[in-house]
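User: Can you help me understand a structure? I only have the sequence.
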Amino acid sequence: MDPIAALPDTPAPSAPSAPTIATLRAGDEVQGVYACTRKERLMSRAGTPYLAVELRDRTAAIPARVFRDADVAAARFERGDLVRISGRVERFREELQLDLRAIARAAEGEADPAAFLPVAYRDLDELDGFLEHLVGEVHDPGYKGLLDLLLGDGALRAAWRRAPCTRGGHHSYLGGLLEHTVAVGTLALEAGQLHPRLNTDLLMTAALVHDLGKTQEFTYGAEIGISEPGRLLGHVELGLRLLDERTARIGAMDADRRLALGHCVLTHHGPEAAPTRRFGSPEALALYRLNALDASVKGALEHGLGLDG
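Assistant: Let's start by predicting it. Here is the structure, written out as tokens:
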């Protein structure tokens, strides 16, 4: 009998009967659906093939091995799939791993891939409230009209809440984009109070929209991936296109405002991408620094200081 067919109809890992990876202990019997984020065919010292697999849910990841009928099992799934597994947790070289008896691609619709991806620790509804508060700090009719239009777009708002900032750097989890946006907006609010000569409406608007292209940059499966538009254009160009389409609907967004905002978005990673190769406004420089501050500090907290501190 096919070992996968013999597996009972267990629910997705969010259900109590399928334990989260962070709670697994040596000796546990495990059945359920997880995300496969690594698949590699290796050879044992005896010269027989085996599969090295990594399984993940939103709590942790664990290595897994398939020693029996490895090539048969390999044909049943690919990296990036949600997989239904059956196995036992073992301790190998002081680390836990799963010895799998069976593994195969989960049935279509059996589980939501997003349920296996890491998520923000902060409450997204709370972050949404902060975003709306920051929008309330903008009074210029052009910039305020643009922000109100963006917040009123239900599909965009949902994508804003879902997207990460990166795949493996700072804020690399669902909700990371919203968290980063609120952080940069809060820093912009403080900068405007410290430096009242700044155009605070422009700076705040740029802080809130500078990464909106990330709402179109990613795909969501067993892993966070890059969309075709994200791969070919990148989030800066995608964001500029999104803003151009929206600002065209706002009568108060004249050419000067559109140009100033576009320049801030274009240079928020530095002026190298701009035609002038330099910052064209204090607000653009401020956004660049504030964005880098939040990204670098968050990255250090999540991944360490690295070689350059």
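Now, to help you interpret it: The mean pLDDT is 90. Residues 187 and 217 are 25 Å apart (CA to CA). Let me know which part you'd like to focus on.
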